[in-house]
Amino acid sequence: MLTAKQKELLMFIHERLKETGVPPSFDEMKEALDLKSKSGIHRLITALEERGFVRRLPHRARAMEIVRLPESVPQGLNRARGFSPSVIEGSLGRVPQVAEGESLPQTVSVPVMGRIAAGVPIEAIQTRLSTIEVPPEILSKGEHYALEVKGDSMIDAGILEGDTIIVRKCEDANNGDIVVALVDEEEATLKRLRRRGDSIALEAANPSYETRIFGPDRVHVQGRLVGLIRRY
Question: Which of 162, 175, 227 is nearest to 202 (CA)?
Fold first, then answer.
């Protein structure tokens, strides 16, 4: 699966190749995706290449080809923009409905959707890696997904590198909630959310990391932490 920016860039390249037969320049891609630097485009293209969506052709400047499009993109799509930001896509774990008198199953399968940074933000991996069996008592109403934690910025909240967190998919959170936050529609991180006037603070739970402050339009909540699983 792809992040919104990865998908947006892929479709922009696809449409440009369809129209002109020539891939867009890095400056054109940066402008189309409203990014501040070309380094962001380099990261996105590398991610698309690693996931098998594009192929860079050797010995030719600006040469690349589209290998495949996301399955969710209908054939004949003629727009590259307008994808809503979403760290996670796909079928997400829900607590099953049971009839009166029946008991809940002992476990519920929740998809493990990749890795989330508890430290300096990194791009979330969008590929559904596996599933994990979770006690239904951990889950609330709605859709859930799991992520592997990378980094140590949340250790004082009891979240360690290598832990698997269970996240309820949502777009809002209360002050003090630990959330999966998407920054600038590109990078995902696990932090405690605080609202400070018109700004949003993403707080680490480790004194080695500084609190990062953003404008409200730069941070999108992708889910709220509801549980944690640790293997010894």
Answer: 175
Catalytic residue among 153, 169, 199, 208: 153
How would you class 228 by CB atoms within 10 Å of its CB: exposed for 0-12, middle for 13-18, buried for 19 or more?
Answer: middle
Tally of CB atoms within 10 A around 155: 16
The model's pLDDT over 45-80, given as tens digits with 9 standing for 90+, comes to 888 888 888 887 765 555 788 888 886 554 443 333
Q: How far, in Å, CA of 52 to CA of 61, rounded?
A: 20
With a CB cutoff of 8 Å and minimum separation 6, the contacts of 87 are 3, 124, 126, 180, 182, 188, 222, 223
Predicted TM-score (pTM) of the model is: 0.58
User: Catalytic: 18?
Assistant: no
- Amino acid identity at 56: R
CA 180/CA 118 separation, integer angstroms: 10
The reply to whether 191 belongs to the active site is: yes
Of residues 5, 7, 30, 191, which has the active-site annotation? 191
CB-based contact 205:176 (threshold 8 Å)? no
